Amino acid sequence: MGFMHTGLLLLLFSSAYSYQFRSGAGSGLSVQDPELEWARMETVIDEDMKPGPALKTKLWRSGSGSGSSTPEYPKEAFKPEKGARPLPDWVKEMLLRPSTAAKPAAGGAAAGRGKLVEILCHVDRMYVRIRRQVFKTRDAYKNLKLGTCPVNQGTKDHYYLLYLLKTDCGFKREVDYLSIGNVLHYKPAGVILREMPFDFSHGCCRWFHSYKVGFHPKLQGGTVFKALQPKSNLILTAQDASGNEITGPKTYTLGQPMYFEAKQPDNTAHSGDQRLYINKCFMTANQDPNSSPKYTAIDNQGCMIDGKVTVQSKFLSGASKMAQKFSVGALIFKDMVSPSSSSQQLYMHCEISKGKLTPTPSSKACNYDPATKKWKELYGDDSVCTCCESTCPSAQPRGKDPPFLFTHYRKSLQKPLV
Q: Is 24 helix (H, G, I), strand (E, B) or coil?
């Protein structure tokens, strides 16, 4: 949401509680009073939905003289056969008999008093209104759209989006089901969120009797996840604050530290003059490390760059230098917030190497100290962290260096962070 208000974009009409938004007045229906227009359209829809006069259907009854009132119809009219033929008039009258079921609300499932979002649909238009109380800022309407069209009317209680279907708002027509759909978007501006965005899908359907239209089911496939077999003897695990591995689902609050450890199994032999280094770590919302979006926490050959954003992100010391612990402040991807939930599954992916005990600009664990605004190595000389503000040299093996000192691994958590 914007933090600067350049002035109200509202024009007061004669009604004490009616406003018009200049930002959308030219792209939709311009009415003097949106509440009166809403009530008028409700009346029009209500009249259209009233059942017609009852039809008298002639029934064929049994002629056995038993007095049974059970109706019998000529079986030939319902006999399956190849091809198509018109239905007899008496069958049409029977199928078109007005329903005595309770009449649904004019605005569909989202309509009714006290509802936060209401929808009205007619032959050539779609009306949507949403209560102002949903939002916490007075400029919320600037980020609210019906498809691609902005709010064009407003009162003290509601924002209105009144549009004809011929308007280029992104209305989607489904021919098979004879329906019109669109999405109500709310996407606050800015890098951070103070209110959750949402996408509210809605539509209008025209109903027909079963003999007029067929229904065609659509099969949708799912995604099956298979655990990846580790290609190295390194393990990347999620842990709690006490250093215990998290084996089940874990929910984090935004900003709360999430703990991780990269290590070799306890029974793996290693030289006493080696150390484990984490060169790069990033998070994705998908199990595929090449998916987007992604957020990098560790980069530049061992610099905890997310530590410049939050103090929760840092390398942590441990009993063994062949195990590297670190924490990252919990986060979510703004563009992937679900309309029904603010939670996301995150996957951590890391590039890990083994090297000498003495850190170098190519292999290190550097934390950012906000007090001194300097980088500090977890165990060694801080001078190796100087390059964290620029570009650190790659840890690729060179001619005179033993290759095993710079062995690289890419590890990903097999279970998502919830």
A: helix
For the domain 235-412, what is the CATH code? 2.60.40.4100
pLDDT interval class at 323 (50, 70, 90):
very high
Question: Which residues, 6 or more positions from 272, have their beta carbon under 8 angstroms from its beta carbon?
Answer: none
Residue type, 362: S
CA distance 162 to 130: 12
Question: 301 near 224, Cβ under 8 Å?
Answer: no
Q: Which residue has the higher pLDDT, 104 or 289?
A: 289
Query: Residue 215: which residues within 8 A CB-CB, separation 6 or more?
Result: 176, 177
Q: Rounded to whole angstroms, how far apart are CA atoms 414 and 287?
A: 8
Arithmetic mean of pLDDT, 13-35? 57
Where b means 16+ CB within 10 Å and e means fewer, 255-290 reads eebbbbbbbbeeeeeeeeebbbbbbbbbbbbbbebe
| Phi, psi angle pair for 151, to nearest 5° | -60, 135
Q: How far is CA 27 from its chain centroid?
A: 28
Sequence ranges of the domains in the chain: 1-51+61-222, 235-412
* CB 281, CB 350: distance < 8 Å: yes
Note the pTM of the prediction, 2 decimals. Answer: 0.44
Contact 239, 258 (CB under 8 A): no
What does the DSSP 8-state code read for residue 213? -
Q: Which CATH class is domain 1-51+61-222?
A: mainly beta
For strand 158-164 and strand 257-263, is the pairing parallel, antiparallel, or unpaired? Answer: unpaired
Burial class (CB in 10 A: 0-12, 13-18, 19+), 310: middle
Question: Do 273 and 357 form a contact (C-beta atoms < 8 A)?
Answer: yes
At 231 the three-state DSSP class reads: coil
Give the list of residues 6+ apart from residue 278 with CB closer than 8 angstroms, or none: 262, 298, 302, 315, 324, 326, 350, 351, 352, 365
Span 52-110, pLDDT tens digits? 554 444 444 434 444 444 455 566 667 777 777 777 777 777 666 555 544 444 444 34
Q: Is the pLDDT of residue 261 over 70?
A: yes
